[in-house]
Amino acid sequence: MNLELSDADRAFQAEVRDFVRSSLPPELAERNRRHMHLAKQDYVTWHRLLNKRGWGAPNWPKEFGGTDWNPVQRYIFDEECAIADAPPLVPFGISMVGPVIYTFGTPAQKAHYLPRILSMEDWWCQGYSEPGSGSDLASLRTRAESDGDDYIVTGHKIWTTQAHFADMMFCLVRTDAQAKPQEGISFLLIDMKTPGITVRPIISIDEGHGVNEVFLDGVRVPKANRIGQEGKGWTYAKFLLGNERTTIAEVSTSKQRLRRLKTIARAEMAQGASLLEDPAFRDKVAAVEIELLALEYTNLRVLAAETAGKGVGPEASMLKIRGSEIQQTITELVCEALGYYAAPFEHAPEGSNLAPLGPDYAQGRMESFLYNRATTIYGGSNEIQRNIIAKMVLGL
Ligand SMILES: Cc1cc2nc3c(=O)[nH]c(=O)nc-3n(C[C@H](O)[C@H](O)[C@H](O)COP(=O)(O)OP(=O)(O)OC[C@H]3O[C@@H](n4cnc5c(N)ncnc54)[C@H](O)[C@@H]3O)c2cc1C
């Protein structure tokens, strides 16, 4: 979509473009473009460059170190970063727990944690899901027992993305086993270096290590690390999930992948003509492009409502469903366009002189396809999002 930009927005776009082009390390952009598994330092490097420029938290109000950008400016920023193949901003601090802390935290929590999120001194992870408590999150069993000024936390979290990088985990725990499931939950901020925490890797279908199991065995957590009131954790958890579902839509990333899909389809040949000229394939590309355009407008509407102080409602579920399905469709079409060249999906190890198989643009596409199977699961599965829409939006 080409928004009709005002002169001021065009000037802002040029400013962002110049900064991203001149500051993003080319080798980092290249690794991200090839869907290589990025190291912790890659994300930290890019985040710190942005933060030095004052852009580390595009979604935060200025009083907490954010930008106060309006939806169009945020849209422009996302677009320019995606076009340059910049790594995504790590969402756990900036998009997830940061807004919870500045909305519901104590002055001491705000003063301590927010600057550390901005500087990336603390890498956060999300300790919500447990074995048996994913969709039915309110059934979670990790318990926090009161012990003077502390809680003693014992339980088992699973699918904890980048827990192996994390300094801190925001965690849902049960503080009252007698209350109704949603009412006995509290929201704790846990230092990952506390004795009793063990992180074990889960290797995913793309052979990457992004997710983990986290075991908590008698972990002592100060009550000062609880967000808001005891037993009200479900309220803060839902606030956070609303924000998570809007960022998961990843419109700008999908637009960049769609551009790349077209480049590949232009280069690949089918019966003497480029694949993009093949009517059947072109129809599929057009269909996903139309869906993406519709998602983009919806995303802007939700961003505008959020900026107007209306908060993110259950409509965020719509963005999550369509955004995740579009991501999957584009990665499927890329593999379809590549044919055999999509099949090998192991990168040559660092420093080896193994030649990659197939054209350069085939690198990393199978990993991306495989990993994207998870988009309709994480952040709350799409079936659950449909249930939310049925109940909260359609009143069924
Ligand atoms: C790559 C990845 C990263 C993740 N990262 C994190 C993270 O960082 N932190 C974290 O806390 N969690 C994380 N998760 C967990 C994720 O939120 C859960 O996997 C998700 O909520 C589904 O829960 P589950 O896996 O327990 O599946 P289940 O809840 O067991 O669901 C299994 C299937 O049944 C369907 N289903 C369940 N209940 C219903 C219903 N009532 N109606 C219709 N269908 C239903 C589901 O849609 C799904 O298809 C991650 C997951 C993945 C795959």
Oligomeric organization of the protein chains: single chain
Question: What is the CATH H-level superfamily of the largest domain?
Answer: Butyryl-CoA Dehydrogenase, subunit A, domain 3
How helical, in percent, are the residues? 40-55%
Q: What's the story with the biggest beta sheet?
A: 4 strands, mixed
CATH-level-2 architecture of the largest domain: Up-down Bundle
| Amino- and carboxy-terminal Cα gap | 34 Å
Brief synopsis:
The protein contains 12 helices and 10 strands. It has helices at 7-23, 26-33, 40-52, 71-83, 91-104, 107-118, 233-247, 251-267, 279-307, 316-338, 365-371, 382-393; strands spanning 124-127, 143-147, 150-158, 168-174, 185-191, 197-203, 209-222, 226-227, 269-270, 273-274.
Overview of this protein structure:
- With 396 residues, this protein is α+β, with helices and mostly antiparallel strands.
- It folds into 3 domains: 7-89, no CATH class; 123-232, Butyryl-CoA Dehydrogenase, subunit A, domain 2; 248-393, Butyryl-CoA Dehydrogenase, subunit A, domain 3 (Up-down Bundle).
- 45% of the residues lie in helices and 15% in strands.
- The chain has 12 helices and 10 strands.
- Strands 1-4-5-8 form a 4-stranded mixed sheet.
- Helix 8 (251-267) runs antiparallel to helix 9 (279-307) and helix 9 runs antiparallel to helix 10 (316-338).
- The protein is globular and about 75 Å long.
- It binds flavin-adenine dinucleotide (FAD).
- Residues 126-129, 134-135, 159-161, 211, 374, 377-378, 380-381, 383-384, 387 line the site of flavin-adenine dinucleotide.
